[in-house]
Amino acid sequence: MLVLGIETSCDETGIALYHTKRGLLSHALYSQTEMHGEYGGVVPELASRDHIRRVLPLIRQVLAAASLDLRDIDAIAYTRGPGLAGALLVGASIAAALGFALKIPVLGIHHLEGHLLSPLLSTPAPDFPFVALLVSGGHTQLMEVSGLGQYTLLGETVDDAAGEAFDKTAKLLGLGYPGGPALSKLADEFSSSNQQKRFKLPRPMLHSGDLNFSFSGLKTAVLTLTNKHEMTEQARGGIALAFQEAVVDVLTGKSLAALAKTGLTQLVVAGGVGANRQLRRNLCRDAEKIGATVFFPELEFCTDNGAMIAFAGAMRLQSPGIRDQKPDDTFAIKARWDLEIQGMSPEA
Ligand code: ATP
Ligand code: MG
Ligand code: FE
What we know:
Layout: E1 2-7, E2 12-19, E3 23-31, H1 33-37, H2 44-65, E4 75-81, H3 85-102, E5 106-110, H4 111-117, E6 130-135, E7 140-147, E8 150-156, H5 162-172, H6 180-192, H7 216-228, H8 233-262, E9 266-270, H9 277-289, E10 293-295, H10 307-317
Parallel strand pairs: 1-4, 4-5, 6-9, 9-10
Antiparallel strand pairs: 1-2, 2-3, 6-7, 7-8
Bound molecules: adenosine-5'-triphosphate (ATP), magnesium ion and fe (iii) ion.
């Protein structure tokens, strides 16, 4: 079965072709970050308009790359939510129109389910059940994943998401938008330069006894530092490293606590912050000590992409009996949508 995946929830147009037997055949991504960078954040109306410009050419591109034709597609999976309403509507309406014209099923996918399942695109892939650490621009959650569509929230951020904290802190350090990758690069450079660590930041909620997170205080602590110290290149590097270490320590500590709590031995990391090298290193190091294994998506599938949507669609279409498997011909979107079990039905 050949599934076309369409992702348009935010500022990335992602298109992919996934074949249930042959795997990922081709994928393409257009990122709008440069356009939004000028405004310091995503402008929803500009995002929707740009998705309209990109979706069809990208579909043609992935089909050509796989030497396939529109008529070879057996089903379409698009991101139903959560995300920006206008941006979601672009993907949903194109999916519905194509599905109608080609007389094939159209399936609305939860964006976070896409992120969550993205490590399954790699080999070796984890088996159910596992714990998932979902660290993206809009979410920071620990989930117990018992099977496809069976997600139990173990804990989440009470304020900013980890990616959001990276981006806001990067802005404070003058690193532009989106600053997460730039901040991480600065931190890694400072770390390998062997300079003295001058700054230490708190580990919010690390010992709170639950699996929740809080990152907005860290950003305020960084603001205090930038006001107090002269922002030399060295000071910025030192603060970037102190910030990254604090976030990584909390994410690592809570992930291990989630493994202990559930008794599971597989940890899956998904979402943009999953690209962070220090996070990857520390998680692997600490998981190994307790005999657990960590799985990451390929770097290019950490942030938004079409492959994870095509893949989640393929998994759903192949799993009879799960609640959301009924293909739909409406282009309903859900700008806000919880991932937990009760949230998996489009009617929920
Ligand atoms: P959501 O999926 O919650 O709707 P999103 O789709 O915007 O949010 P992603 O695309 O998964 O989020 O991830 C983007 C986030 O990842 C940004 O906040 C970005 O700064 C962060 N990020 C990307 N690379 C890195 C890195 N190497 N280190 C830290 N953060 C990173
Ligand atoms: Mg993005
Ligand atoms: Fe995302």
